[in-house]
């Protein structure tokens, strides 16, 4: 197996995310538009719904995007992230635990702060579909997550176990 630097892997991860977006485009056309949503961000901030788990590499990519935000916003996001881990007990769950939380990357009035740069795969896959048959097949996400798992092994040389997004971020900066 050829090893990769984290920087090279993040570049490959960006390409993987873009290909995934392209594969979902035909399905998203059948979903409600986020631009016309009557409760913008509800899917990102509903603490009983959000359960996005990410890999170490995805956390590194997100943190890189956060580091490029203006200082006040960057600090707010990081404070929210640490508070989310504590508030929802994300550091106390096991691999089978619910791990739901309100996403600290959502900024009211702006939306997802990493939408264009480091949006996690499950978030890319999410859309509001009225009919079950309009949903993209789950294998698309599963296949893409396997690609990311392979990148993780090539960078970190082990099987990185995905974790709830806020926990994965805080563990990278502690």
Major sheet: arrangement of strands = 1-4
Distance between the termini: 29 Å
Q: How many domains would you count in the coordinates?
A: 1
**Major pleated sheet:** 2 strands, antiparallel
Tell me the total number of β-strands: 4
- What percent strand? under 5%
Structure class = mainly alpha
How much helicity do the residues have?
40-55%
Number of helical elements: 7
Report on this model:
- This protein is mainly α and 174 residues long.
- It has one domain (6-173).
- It is built from seven helices and four strands.
- It has helices at 6-28, 42-45, 56-67, 71-87, 121-125, 138-156, 165-173; strands at residues 53-54, 106-107, 111-112, 163-164.
- Helix 1 crosses helix 3, helix 3 crosses helix 7 and helix 4 packs across helix 7 (165-173).
- The chain is globular.
- It starts with 5 loop residues before the first helix and ends with a helix.
- The mean pLDDT is 91.
Provide tags for this entry.
single chain; 174 residues; mainly alpha; two-stranded antiparallel ribbon; two-stranded antiparallel sheet; 7 helices; 51% helix; globular
Give a concise summary:
This protein is mostly helical and 174 residues long. It has helices spanning 6-28, 42-45, 56-67, 71-87, 121-125, 138-156, 165-173; strands at 53-54, 106-107, 111-112, 163-164. A hairpin with a 3-residue loop joins strand 2 (106-107) and strand 3.
């Amino acid at each position: 197996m050829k090893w990769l630097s984290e920087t090279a892997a993040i570049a490959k991860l960006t390409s993987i995310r873009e290909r995934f977006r392209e594969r979902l485009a035909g399905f998203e056309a059948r979903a409600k538009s986020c631009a016309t949503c009557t409760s913008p961000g509800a899917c990102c901030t509903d603490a009983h719904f959000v359960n996005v788990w990410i890999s170490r590499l995805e956390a590194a990519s997100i943190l890189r995007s956060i580091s490029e935000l203006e200082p006040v916003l960057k600090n707010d996001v990081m404070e929210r992230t640490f508070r989310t881990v504590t508030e929802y007990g994300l550091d106390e769950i096991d691999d089978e635990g619910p791990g739901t939380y309100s996403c600290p990357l959502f900024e009211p009035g702006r939306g997802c702060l990493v939408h264009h740069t480091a949006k996690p795969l499950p978030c890319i896959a999410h859309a509001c579909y009225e009919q079950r048959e309009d949903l993209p097949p789950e294998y698309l996400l599963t296949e893409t997550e396997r690609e990311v798992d392979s990148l993780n092994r090539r960078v970190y040389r082990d099987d990185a176990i995905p974790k709830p997004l806020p926990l994965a971020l805080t563990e990278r900066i502690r």
